[in-house]
From TrEMBL:
Major localization listed first in the record, in broad terms: membrane
Coiled coil: none
InterPro entries for this protein: UPF0324_pro
Membrane-topology descriptor: Multi-pass membrane protein
Name of the featured protein: Sulfate exporter family transporter
Leader sequence segment: none
Transmembrane stretches, start-end: 45-64, 125-143, 155-175, 187-207, 252-270, 282-300, 336-359
Pfam families per record: Cons_hypoth698
Entry annotated with the keyword Transcription: no
Phylogenetic lineage: Bacteria, Pseudomonadati, Pseudomonadota, Alphaproteobacteria, Hyphomicrobiales
GO cellular component, one term: plasma membrane
Keyword terms, alphabetized: Cell membrane, Membrane, Transmembrane, Transmembrane helix
Similarity section: Belongs to the UPF0324 family.
tRNA-binding as UniProt keyword: no
Length: 362
């Protein structure tokens, strides 16, 4: 039984043998024994965890000073340190960061949402979000087969586009069946969805104006289509305060869909036996997500604590992204070709088209 300190599959290191490793190490090291105490656990984890956190810190500094997506910086910086995941003391900490730290960051996202924010939107935006999400995932699953990609990648990319970009990709990837290409597909999804979201932040406000949307319609359109929360905020408030508020609430509704979607995927994977013949693990981190939504909805947590939780969540996700970058080779990523990117562009165009149709004619 593997732990969050072990690599995702026995072939993970074997894959690197064909990638011209920097140090010429071509053996598969034995899986480390489970830690007997918290002290030994920390001793095994801290080199890789500290490296991932340092990369996250550097990426955050650059993002703040140059106004670029922090997730993209963390990914690219992490990939330059890929050799640290081939062998040595950093492997266990990198695995821990890409799994446990990731789940913690996703769980803490629940502090951003209240049920009141969702209900204030009314029926039409809620139906728009749900319809756009479900049809985008279905489109991803269908087109992935036509383009020669795995169905898992179609679900992963569709969920990332339909819910909340990089965060959704990480959460969905944590319950999908493990395969040799799992990390590569996750990294590719995060990179592509971040770039598409950045382009949407620039172009969609212009499109909303060209379509003659008022502040409310523009807010629903931006919140229902742009992938990442930060880009939704940037695009919405570039039009008006009202548009920014509505766009943020609609986007948070999409984030809230993370819980039922990931639970459903985990259930289907477990029932189908795709998780290696065993039941898929229960995504307990989503229970934490739901609990924080409930606590925040009833006003049981002070604003100072909520702000602290949001900061911790952001740092966990950036650190996890850096670790995933360290697990991925540039050569491996470049080998996937144009089809996965075309798939994600098609999903992005689809969800934008669905949302525009509802906003304009509903």
């Amino acid at each position: 039984m593997t732990s969050d300190l072990d690599t995702d599959s026995e072939t993970a290191h074997a894959l690197f043998q064909s990638y011209d490793a920097m140090e010429g190490v071509h053996h598969v090291p034995p899986a480390p024994a489970a830690p007997a105490t918290w002290r030994s656990f920390a001793w095994r984890v801290y080199p890789g965890l500290l490296t991932a956190a340092t990369i996250a810190l550097a990426a955050t500094w650059l993002a703040q000073h140059y106004g670029s997506p922090v997730m993209l910086f963390a990914l690219l910086f992490g990939m330059t340190f890929h050799f640290l995941h081939e062998e040595g003391r950093c492997v266990a900490g990198v695995e821990f960061s890409s799994k446990t730290v990731l789940r913690l960051g996703v769980a803490l996202l629940g502090a951003r949402i209240t049920l009141g924010q969702i209900l204030e939107l009314g029926a039409t935006p809620i139906a728009t979000v749900i319809g756009g999400l479900l049809t985008t995932i279905a489109l991803g699953a269908l087109l992935s087969r036509l383009l020669g990609q795995s169905r898992a990648f179609g679900v992963l990319s569709g969920g990332a586009v339909g819910i909340c970009g990089a965060s959704a990709a990480l959460a969905i990837a944590s319950v999908l069946p493990r395969a040799p290409e799992s990390e590569r597909d996750t990294i590719l999804t995060v990179v592509t969805v971040t770039l598409l979201s950045t382009l949407a932040m620039i172009l969609y406000p212009l499109l909303a104006t060209a379509l003659g949307f008022d502040d409310v319609k523009a807010g629903v359109f931006l919140g229902g289509t742009i992938h990442d929360v930060a880009q939704v905020v940037g695009a919405g408030y570039s039009i008006s305060q009202r548009t920014g508020d509505i766009a943020t609430y609609v986007k948070l509704l999409r984030v809230a869909m993370l819980v039922p979607v990931v639970f459903t995927i985990a259930f289907v994977v477990g029932r189908s036996g795709a998780a290696g013949g065993t039941k898929a693990p229960i995504p307990y981190f989503l229970l934490g997500f739901a609990a924080l939504v409930a606590i925040n909805s009833f006003g049981l947590m002070p604003k100072l604590a909520l702000d602290a939780i949001n900061d911790v969540s952001r740092w966990c996700l950036v650190t996890a992204i850096a670790a995933l970058g360290m697990k991925t080779s540039f050569k491996d990523l470049a080998a996937v070709g144009w089809k996965p990117i075309a798939l994600m562009i098609a999903e992005t165009v689809w969800i934008a088209g669905v949302t525009i149709a509802v906003v304009k004619f509903a």
